[in-house]
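Aim 2 progress update. The chain analyzed this quarter is reproduced below.
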Amino acid sequence: MLKLRLTRMGSKKRPVYRIAAMEALSRRDGKAVAYLGNYYPLEDGKVTLKEEEIVKFLMNGAQPTRTVKSLLDKAGVWAKFEAAKKN
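Predicted structure tokens:
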């Protein structure tokens, strides 16, 4: 099963996270199927996303973690997914 989750990058005490589509049983920083965006928590929570690809993965059954779901909610991608799911 695919999960949309965060992988950690950046130096010590300066985290940067990638939003990745990964197998559920893989390691946190293991090999990803696709990288779908970035999250910069120290830059006022700046988020960059590949919205179309994220919606495509969600439509195919990928499950986001709680943190990723909240990031998608704030960016408005989750609403696009809900609208696409109804159609």
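The mean pLDDT is 95. Helices lie at 51-59, 66-75, 77-86. These observations will guide the mutagenesis experiments scheduled for the next reporting period.
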